[in-house]
Specification:
Blueprint lengths: L1 H6 L11 H11 L6 H12 L14 H9 L5 H20 L26 H9 L6 H8 L5 H6 L5 E2 L4 E4 L9 E4 L5 H9 L7 E2 L2 E2 L2 H14 L7 H13 L4 H8 L6 H6 L4 H8 L5
Helix pairs in contact: 3-5, 4-5, 7-11
């Protein structure tokens, strides 16, 4: 079936192609355009649809798709992944004229629970500045003013930092998050310059060597204890986004800085932001 599709992509047996067959075609033609984490999530979700693998796709109804979500016995994350899979397959099937409507539009899944993350308060950010000269506190401030994930910041090399342009470049996890450009906030530029001057293989080093995430968490724990705070590194990322939103930052700029895909199609497709606009957005953080 895949060979037939490759010979003529629009000539498949629309009446007989099964869920399994369509998924194989989708993996070949569409999945490579997604991030690795998303691909892995959708492949795992497909396993929960095994009861329908041999069914002609055009015969599968909305209630059967919904049953794969309701009957998976897993958390909201898995349910959301299954729903996401049906959406991808429906769009592909529609493109191939296998179906004429997308039943996936009718599907529901358990909503994600409210986040338990706690952002740094303005007072806590001020406390960080008051202790900026103490070991490793500078890295917390770089986190708070840049929105990097812990693995992303620790992976930055000196070559990823362009002081002339005033930017850092890096990122992982999703297609939107990779190789994103983050303007260096004026407040943390001196901290970044000091780290660069150390001349190590990474922007953030310990004794001239890259810092493993597990080691950094030990440094973090010591900072939180000394400053009487209770946060995890990822809450710096939440703080960055929350503070920009509260300051009235442009949603598209915030999404680009965070490495998120805008939910609004117009913003995602047509709204192109310049580096100057991203820099202006970052500088909205005045505390």
């Amino acid at each position: 079936m895949l060979a037939q599709y490759n010979t003529n992509p629009w000539d498949v047996d629309r009446a007989k192609i099964t869920l399994g067959g369509l998924f194989d075609l989708w993996k070949e033609k569409k999945a490579p355009k997604l991030g690795k984490a998303n691909q892995d999530s959708l492949r795992a979700a497909f396993k929960h649809c095994s009861a329908l693998w041999n069914r002609p796709y055009k015969e599968i109804k909305a209630f059967e798709m919904q049953d794969t979500i309701d009957g998976c016995g897993r958390s909201y994350a898995t349910q959301g992944a299954i729903k996401n899979l049906w959406t991808h397959l429906d769009k592909f099937a529609l493109e191939l004229d296998i179906i004429t409507r997308c039943y996936s539009d009718l599907l529901t899944s358990t909503a994600a629970p409210p986040t338990s993350r706690t952002v740094f308060t303005p007072g806590e950010v001020q406390t960080l500045w008051e202790h900026a000269g103490e070991p490793w506190v500078d890295t917390v401030l770089i986190f708070v003013y840049s929105g990097w994930r812990i693995s992303e910041l620790l992976a930055l090399t000196p070559e990823d930092v362009d002081l002339e342009a005033g930017t850092m470049k890096g990122g992982t996890k999703t297609a939107a998050g990779k190789n994103r450009v983050i303007p260096i906030h004026s407040k943390i530029r001196p901290l970044v310059e000091v780290r660069l001057a150390e001349g190590g293989p990474r922007l953030i080093c310990y004794e001239g060597k890259p810092v493993p995430v597990t080691t950094y968490r030990l440094f973090w724990r010591d900072i939180m204890k000394r400053l009487k705070m209770s946060h995890v590194p990822h809450e710096c990322r939440h703080t960055f986004e929350t503070r920009l939103d509260s300051a009235g930052g442009n949603r598209r700029c915030i999404d680009l800085l965070m490495g998120h895909v805008s939910k609004d199609t117009g913003n995602r497709v047509y709204n192109h932001k310049t580096l100057a606009e991203l820099q202006a957005t970052v500088e909205l953080l005045t505390i």
